[in-house]
Amino acid sequence: MAADTMNAKSVQPRLRADALRNRERIVAAAREVIVESGAHIPLDEIARRAGVGNATIYRHFTDRRELIHHVALSVMSRVADQAESALAEEADTFSALRRFVHAAADEHIGALCLLLSDGLDKEHPDLIATRDRLADGVEALMGAAKADGKLRTDIGVGDLMVALNQLTRPLPGSACVDFEPFVHRHLQLFLDGLHTPARSELPGKSMTLEDLQHRP
């Protein structure tokens, strides 16, 4: 029934401009709160951050699970936008990859693990479509850098996304929220390791996003 509810809700009626702004504020506030404190923060706090009442949240989302579903879609969609714009706008392919990696960190892509592990239907058509778009965008970025001889060839999209998730995953507790400067330093070190010529041979094999999705 939950999946049927979400499928029905995924075909949204056309919203008035003010209602659309409220919906976007709620999703943005939820993303911010989840990054800081996890997915089980009270909806009161999300409403407060969004500047709306609790009733407004329930006018847009039937429950917490549906709200988190849309936060996950928002994160993946925004990161996919970053991949596509970086490839289109940067003349140097490795610079495009570097720009994407830092932009994905700013979008708090590491929160995706928290979102997708919170009982969401990972096979929901909206999630699959957005995930595929993200995978295609990152694959295009990496493929272009490999074709130019600037990215080592023994890594796959899955390798990059695992590293991004690990290096940008929110740390528990409000005292650890402001760690972005360290994230970008460590991401830059990671990127240096991706540049050719490779300085070592990696153990194991490169990973795709499909490999990650089918791991137990």
UniProtKB/TrEMBL annotation:
Keyword terms: DNA-binding, Transcription, Transcription regulation
A Pfam family that the UniProt record links to this protein: TetR_N
Domain of life of the source: Bacteria
Residue span, HTH tetR-type domain: 20-79
Entry keyword annotation includes Cytoplasm: no
Transcription among keywords: yes
Residue spans binding DNA: 42-61
GO molecular function: DNA-binding transcription factor activity; transcription cis-regulatory region binding
Protein name per its UniProtKB record: TetR family transcriptional regulator
UniProt organism field: Streptomyces violaceusniger
